[in-house]
Amino acid sequence: MNKEKKINIQMAVVHILATFNNIIITVSDLGGSVLTWSSSGCNGFKGSKKSTSYAAQVTAEKVIKKIKEFGIKTISIKIQGPGNGRESSIKGLASSKINITSIKDITSIPHNGCRPPKRRRV
Fold first, then answer.
1. Would you state the pLDDT for residue 4?
2. Within 10 A of 39 (CB to CB), how many other CB atoms are there?
3. Handedness of CA 38, 8, 86, 83 (dihedral sign)
4. Is the dihedral of CA 52, 73, 101, 107 positive or negative?
5. What pLDDT band is residue 8 in, cutting at 50, 70 and 90?
6. What local confidence, expressed as pLDDT, does residue 2 receive?
7. Does domain 11-105 bear CATH number 2.30.110.10?
8. Cβ count within 10 A of residue 65
9. Could you tell me which of 19, 60, 82, 115 has the fewest CB atoms within 10 Å of its CB?
10. Whole-angstrom distance between the N-terminal and C-terminal Cα of the chain?
11. 30-41, pLDDT tens digit by residue?
């Protein structure tokens, strides 16, 4: 008797975390609630292959398949991290017929860096 309600969301935010070891793509609604996510490790890539551009593209395509169940029409993308799969994950998201409104880089930049070590006493 329990029938699942079909969620119909018009716009979502896609967060891409591209590190040197893995690529994690998370989809949330405008309120910040996570709808779905995927990573290159979940898609069968192991070791150094997780951080490749191909793994990022495959992960983005898997996320698009999950997004279409929610009825999302437009997305805005936020990218974080210095990894290899930044551009290819955007290409994977753009290959679908979902509108992309904005692409924003939210990688944090240190202002003054770490505190240097104490001066050596001999």
1. 57
2. 19
3. negative
4. negative
5. confident
6. 52
7. no
8. 11
9. 115
10. 79
11. 999 999 999 999
67 with 38: CB under 8 angstroms?
A: no
6 CB-near residues (< 8 Å, 6+ apart): 71
Measured in degrees and rounded to the nearest 5, phi and psi for residue 63 equal: -65, -40
Instruction: Check residue 33 and report its DSSP letter.
Output: -
Phi, psi (deg, nearest 5) at residue 50? -65, -30
Q: Six-digit token pair at 65?
A: 């398949």
CA-to-CA dists, residue 119 to 10, 112, 113, 116, angstroms:
58, 19, 17, 9
Q: In the chain, which residue ranges form alpha helices assigned H by DSSP?
A: 53-67, 86-94
Q: d(Cα 11, Cα 32) in Å, to the nearest integer?
A: 12
Where do the domains of the chain lie? 11-105
Per-residue pLDDT of 93-116, as tens digits, reads 999 889 999 999 999 988 888 899
Q: What is the dihedral of CA 95, 99, 101, 106, to 10 degrees?
A: -40
Calculate mean pLDDT across residues 40-63.
Answer: 94
